[in-house]
Amino acid sequence: MFYKNNWFTYSYDNVPYGHKTSLSSNFTVEITPTVTNVKSYYEELKNNAICIRDMFSEKLDLLFSGGIDSEVVLRIYNDLKIPINVYIFKYENHYNYREFNQAIKICEALGSSYEVIDFNLEKFFENEAYDIWTKVNCKGSGWLPHMKMTEYLDGIPIIGSGEPYWIRTSRDTTIKQPWVFEINEGAKAWTVYHKNIQRDVVSDWYEYSPELLVSHTELPLIQDLINDRIPGKLSSFSSKAVVHKQIWSDIDIRPKMVGFEGNNNPGYLSKPNFMIEFDNIYSKDAASKKYYFTEQELKSKLLL
């Protein structure tokens, strides 16, 4: 993954963009201030999309889950009329039937062509997941299928995930508490893997440009959240669709789906047993370090 003007660097055991060679490898981050001017969030979304497009001569291939993060990526390229190929992966046994149906619905509503690729989740965990996991030593098996999925694509894969995430420092909503921006080691697993295999991929689409992070922070809804003006909120997680509905009025407000629902499960953390067993054997002891920054701290690190 590339970052505009090298504003963000991660390291493992003091090796910039290194590999996580063991469960205990130490993950650190460094932020270099590069931002001088920030436009509206929508304009920065467009600038982000254009800059990423201009980095590559190859076509762009979007792994489209049907979630709000990848929907925004698809919509912004559509608005700019920049070609992007859309691929929707379908698991066996209807594991991701809610996300899959949502992805189809969005593409048809937007007039976007797409290709469906069948992906056998259980066979992947039986035959390939462990080898991929040894290259990242990540905490949680949910990151692994997408690493394999990029092998199905000929262009530059975009894993449209990771809108800026804000979290409240206390669950006690009766008193005002600080909110912080989170950088999660776990979310870098896709980047670490593709660095390891030397494959160009866009795995941190929303974090490519620091201007996008600042413009997102300055949105009125995000300001209301991080200043405790919306009672009961603990993070920005459930507000992602609401934020973007202010740009695209036809966006559906829906709950997060993880793609492991099955026929009778409500989604969220309902992994199949073979994924739970994988976690219990391999990744339960893996570290997943997180860094937190208040709004003031984040802007002081990003702004020149």
Describe what this molecule looks like in 3D.
The protein has one domain: 3-Layer(aba) Sandwich (Rossmann fold), CATH 3.40.50. Helix content is 36%, strand content 15%. A four-stranded parallel beta sheet has the order 6-5-4-7, covered by helices on one side. Strands 2-1-3 form a three-stranded antiparallel beta sheet, with no helix packed on it. Helix 2 links the parallel strand 4 and strand 5. The longest helix has 15 residues. The radius of gyration is 19 Å and the shape is globular.
Annotate the secondary structure layout.
Layout: E1 8-12, E2 15-16, E3 27-31, H1 41-55, E4 60-63, H2 68-80, E5 85-91, H3 97-110, E6 115-119, H4 121-127, H5 129-133, H6 144-149, E7 156-159, E8 166-168, E9 179-184, H7 189-196, H8 210-217, H9 220-226, H10 240-245, H11 273-283, E10 290-293, H12 295-302
Parallel strand pairs: 4-5, 4-7, 5-6
Antiparallel strand pairs: 1-2, 1-3, 8-9, 9-10
Helix pairs in contact: 1-2, 1-8
